[in-house]
Amino acid sequence: MKTMEKSIPPDQRRALTLLAWCGQDGMTEALLVHGHQISVEVLVELINEGLALVKVEKFGRPTIEVARMQITDAGRAAIE
């Protein structure tokens, strides 16, 4: 029996589709926001709903931080 699932808003679906397309490496927050015009608010919603996760990577000296987004199994299920 299939349960009634909450509908994913188009902007969230678009972000999840991009993340799914990227595979295990995910995509940087900067590319999602500046390259694909996904709002930070949408990314925060995805994280809070457990549909995506963020990992912060540190590089170089001086150190810079890069936020990398990845889709979760729940996020994949939401767009299937």
> So, the CATH homologous superfamily?
Winged helix-like DNA-binding domain superfamily/Winged helix DNA-binding domain
Could you say which overall geometry the principal axes of the C-alpha atoms support? Answer: elongated
| β-strand amount | 15-25%
Q: What value does the Rg take, in angstroms?
A: 13 Å
The assigned CATH architecture is Orthogonal Bundle
- Looking at CATH, which topology would you report? Arc Repressor Mutant, subunit A
How many structural units, i.e. domains?
A: 1
Could you estimate the helical fraction of the residues in percent? 40-55%
Quaternary assembly: single chain
Spatial strand sequence of the major β-sheet = 1-3-2
Compact summary:
The chain is an alpha+beta fold and 80 residues long. The chain has helices spanning 10-22, 29-35, 40-48, 73-79, and strands at residues 27-28, 52-59, 64-71. Strands 1-3-2 form a three-stranded antiparallel sheet.
Describe this structure in words.
With 80 residues, the chain is α+β, with helices and mostly antiparallel strands. The protein has one domain (10-79): Arc Repressor Mutant, subunit A. The protein has 4 helices and 3 strands. The longest helix is centred in the N-terminal third of the chain and has 13 residues, at 10-22.
List the helices and strands and how they pair.
Blueprint: H1 10-22, E1 27-28, H2 29-35, H3 40-48, E2 52-59, E3 64-71, H4 73-79
Antiparallel strand pairs: 1-3, 2-3
Helix pairs in contact: 1-3, 1-4
